[in-house]
Specification:
Helix content: over 70%
Number of strands: 0
Number of domains: 1
Shape: elongated
Order of helices and strands: HHHH
Length: 84
């Protein structure tokens, strides 16, 4: 079980959520399954992986980072829909 109080882990989890909010906002304005749509969904993943590897955070946090990335995408998309 990862140490949830580790500052590196908290930073990675915050990055996973907060970087995906604007990407979800942008994704909501594109045609589904277009190249831009895929880019907006997957753009943060290499950065999250790099942060995880550089900080020595194990593979067990992948479900948490993935869940927060999805939550960020959802929040960004919801914000775009509410703005219309």
């Amino acid at each position: 079980m990862p140490n949830l109080l580790d500052p590196a882990l908290i930073g990675i989890l915050c990055f996973a959520l907060l970087s995906n909010v604007p990407l979800g906002y942008l994704r909501e304005g594109t045609r589904r399954y277009s190249v831009r749509w895929f880019v907006y969904i997957h753009l943060s993943i290499p950065f999250i992986i790099a942060l995880r590897v550089v900080n020595g955070v194990g593979w067990r946090v992948i479900p948490f980072t993935l869940g927060l990335a999805v939550a960020g995408q959802w929040l960004g998309g919801r914000a775009r829909r509410r703005r219309k």
